[in-house]
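so my prof wants the structure for this chain in the tokens format not the other one, which i didnt know existed until like an hour ago. anyway here's the sequence
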Amino acid sequence: MHERCSHCHTKYKIEPSFFYGAMYVSYAVGIAFAFAAFVISFLLVGTSLINTFISIVVTMIVFLPVIVRLSRNIWINLFVHYDSRVVKTS
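here's what i got, hopefully its the right format
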């Protein structure tokens, strides 16, 4: 993760434990990905339960970087307002 935004120069490390809240968001986003993998593999494709479990595990491993970044972005957007008209120079 970059230290500052390349466009508006917002500092991403607001305080040492700011992104601990992103872990809770990451849990919810991970559940959404796992549920989507379950629906696709078990209900739409019709695989067995063990194959469905394997597809959920593989989905969670493959999408881990996406889930982490998405949850951090959701968490910071709850507290930091972005205004595209104002660009910080320092």
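also thought this was worth mentioning. Residues 1-90 form one domain.
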